[in-house]
Every structure is written in C-alpha cells, then in structure tokens.
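User: Here's a protein and a ligand (zinc ion). What would the complex look like?
Assistant: Let me lay out the input and then the predicted complex.
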Amino acid sequence: MKSRPFALHPALNVFLDALFPPRCAGCFEWSRDVFCARCTTELRPIGAPQCEMCGAPFDPLAYSAPICAECRDKTPPFLAARSAFHFEGPLRVAIHRFKYQEKTALAGRLAPFLAQAIARDAILSDFSPQALVPVPLHRARHKKRGFNQSLLLARELGASLGVPVAELLKRTRDTPPQVGLNRKQRAENVRGAFILDAARFEQNGARILLIDDVFTTGATLRECARSLKIAGAGEICALTLARLN
Ligand SMILES: [Zn+2]
Ligand SMILES: [Zn+2]
C-alpha cells in the first residue's frame, strides 16, 4: 500500500517526499507504506476462531461453538459482522487521527484493509453486496467534524470493489456513548435512532454491506441492520476497520 496510489515520475516522487514526507499513520515516522514495518507487526488481524455471526474473537486455546453465547441468545439481524483488526496500538492512533484531526486522506490509505478483511473471510468473500451503506453520523456531529469517516471508507472500498455506495440511513438523534451500558441498555440507547431514506431505497431484497470504522458494542450495527431489514433489505453483512474486543 503506497502513499501515492498514482504513478509519478521518480524524480517528482523524490521531490514530493522531501516536501511532504510520507509518514506512518501509527507512529508518524517516515514510511512510504500506511504503517511502518514496526507498527505493522503490532497490528492484530481478526480471523478464525471467531463467532460466525458477530465476529467476536474466540480464545484459540479453548473449545468454542461456531456461534457465541450472545448470538445464540439473540440472532443478530446481520448474516456476519467482521473487522480487519483489533482496536488497539497503531490502528487506534490512525483511526483517532482520521476522525478527529481531519486527516481525510487516511480513508484511502486505510480502506484497503477492509478489502483484505473481505478477501480472507469465507462469508464476506462470497457475499457480493449490491450496495455499501455507511453508518451515518448525526447531522450535528457531521457538521462539527465536517465529514463522515464511514462514508469516506465506504467510497474508497466501493471504488475498489466496483460496488455503489448508498447513503440509505439517517440518524434521527445523537445517541449518548454506549460505554458502561449493558446489552439491553445499549440496544435501547440506539433503538429507532436510524431511519431509512426511502427515496434512495429502490431495490427490495438488496444485499447490503454496512460500513463503519469501529465495532464497539455492535449495538449500532445491529440497529442499522434492523432498520434496513424492516425496510425490505435482503441479507446484510457488516464490516469495520477495527473491533474493540
Ligand atoms: Zn509506525
Ligand atoms: Zn456472536
């Protein structure tokens, strides 16, 4: 993953590197790749063994059923949720910069990790979504931040996969943080927080891939998937760059 995806004359590259040295998104040291070699070793991809439904990582040393207790208890409205990495270390730094320091260019550098997560997962690589739907920000937060990080990631991924991005969901209210709430409270916290922009929803039964930056408790993605299902969407999967636990 090069910092400049387009080809430049080598001399021009040297000149640009001198003016704007490409930096590691994790430690800010010089690096032509999005993460330097040292930070790359600190990234922990999430893969098997994990819950087939919500993607929760399982202890590789313990026997585990294919589905976690939470999903057995209540089947999620999505077929599968997956995340590229654990939310920690250099990726956590990069996502924080991406969201709060207006480093919108990071979307293009981080989105290839989403494509890699699809490629290495059996369910997602077979899914072939008809639309990518970003998790929306509330209007007030969008205005403050100036951009929706999930939409930027979805656009980059959509361009590389050749799948259209559809901003089907709107957030009706700014939900308080989910930290410290139990599962029931988290679900109630976001219940009804999303409405569908019906005018944009043309295909009943469409397979949709939801895109967000971080899977925190999963309540937001569940509620988004639920809203899409009620509106007539077909199968839904979810994909994030990182997962909190
Ligand atoms: Zn680094
Ligand atoms: Zn699960």
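Summary: Strands lie at 80-86, 131-134, 169-171, 194-196, 208-215, 236-243.
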